[in-house]
Structure formats: C-alpha cells, structure tokens
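Render UDP-N-acetylenolpyruvoylglucosamine reductase in 3D.
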Amino acid sequence: MTDYNRNLTTFRIPITAKRITTASWPNQFLEAYQYAKENKQNLIILGQGSNTLFVEDFDGEIIINQYKGITLTCNSSEYLLKVNSGVTIDELIAYCHRFKVYGLENLASIPSSVGTAAIGNIGAYGVEFEQFVDKVTLLNLENSSYEELTHDQLDFSYRNSILKSPKYRNNYFVVSVTLKIPRLYKPVLTYAPLNSLDPLSVTPQEILNLVVSTRKSKLPDYNEFGNGGSFFLNPVVSFEKYNDLKEKFDITGIILDNNLVKLSAAWLIENSGLKGTTFNRAQVSLKHSLVLGNMDEATGNDIANLASLVQKTVFEKFGITLTPEIRFIASSGEVDANLYLKTLL
C-alpha cells in the first residue's frame, strides 16, 4: 500500500490504497480505469464518501470525483439544470438560490455529491432526489462511449436506482445529472419541524435555514464524530406485521401503498436499548440512534461489528432485519453489506 488518507469518507477512518487520485474531467476517469485494468487493479470512485465504509485496506486505486460545473436554462414551466456529478448537494442548492430556483431546500446539509445522490436517491423531510431527475448521462468506461438513462429507465425506489446494479456500478461513471425543477414553487412541509411553518407565507430561505439548523441539532458533526449519516434503511413491513408489533409495543409507522408500512429504524434501535452502545472505538450515537460512528481511532471493522450487533439485537426483539444503507468496501471492491454482517460477531 502506498497511499493513506483518513478524510476520504465521512467516517474519518484511515484508508490505505495502492493509489489515491483526484479527477476533474471525464477523460481522467477513463485513464484511471484503463490504468487499473492494465495493472489488474481494482478501482473505486468516491464522491463525498458519506455513504461508504471501508472494512479492509483497499487493494487498488481510489479516484475522487471533482468533476464540477452547472448549466442552467429554462422554459415556460421549468428550470433545467445540467449538473456535473462532482458538485455537492449544498453547492447545488447555493447555486439555485443565487438564481432564485427553489425546491431542493429539504435536502440541505446531506453530505453527498450529485452523482451519488442520483445513484442512491437521497431524501429528507418528504423530498427525494428522483423527483427532480430528468436523465443521467453516463460514461461507459469499458468502451469510452456516452449513454443516457431517462427517469423511467433509472428505476428509482427508496434509496435505490438501477445505477446500483452490478452492470452500472462496476463499469460506468455518472458524468452529469439533468434536473427539472418547476418554476412554480410549492414547499414540502410534510415532516416535522417543517410542518410548523405557514405554507402560505414561508420562504425557501426559511425552509433552508430550518433544515440546516435541525440537522445540526439532531445529527452529530462527522468532523467530530466520524459517521455516514443514517446507517440503516427504514424497514418496510406488511400491515399484518405492523399490527402484531402494535399489540406489543408503542410503535408508529407510515402507511404506504400495497398494504405496507414504513417503520423508523431509529426508533427500533433506540427501543432495543442500543443508544450509546460501543464496540471498541465505534459507538451508536448518543445524539441520534440511527447514526453509527467513530468515537476516535475506530476501524471500519469496529463499525461493521457494531452494526452487526445492532442488526442482531433489533431482530431478536422485533423480528425485523435492518438493512444497511451504507456501502461496504472490502479489499477487492464493494461487498454485500448484509452478507458481510452475517460473518461477524
């Protein structure tokens, strides 16, 4: 291993790799891919590293996406933004506010690049990124060709898209994301604390300020307590399972279509008595139980072992298996997080 860096992911865990480089143009990603292929090395592309946990030293090259740039046009009903994949969500929102383009405020302070936001369909406070995605431009690293996928082809779902499938994950680079944002602004105030705002008078800046301050008060700063944000997805269960749980626990859920109910992973973890639980230097945050983080000098495997403990404890109490939202990276590349956790503890 030749390169070492603890700031590549928001877990702030030291990472070693054969090469760590930065790319600002699509051709640099092609060059890195070809170099890795010729040298029979593995390759991982990172954005902000907010949803990525390295559980082993990486036997290959890590390339950091710094491909920036935004182009804004509009028609009579919509703003059209072509956003290069290395732009961060906060950079995008700041750009939009500069030109009075509103609607993304609920996603503020999510430490994600736009490329990663499209791949994982980030969301917060009643808004999901896919609501604005018109198309994604991809670079096929194998044959150097550009391809486009429309919104329907991206097959978005909760924290997921077709871009997470092996076909696109291994051989494609997200070059840019084209967004459509309605010119007629309609604030989304579904979730607390935004539901306390007056929909008739609230301004986009007020929503932005409240989202930022709320996330700051509820979530630990990853510069002080390295973490990847929400570690587990909120589980979706059948209505029958939900009713069974309600008979035993003071639990609430969000009723979805198709006789399904979305539960709070944070509530399940906290009511399993896990808040503040540690494994070596990893801890379930005292500030928010859905956040698993690095107290100081934790390893990726410390975090993974803690996640395995959380997963098993929640299942034993509620009969629900929590699924990691975080990507797990081993020495040769991404691994199935659930299968990896089953090998621990």
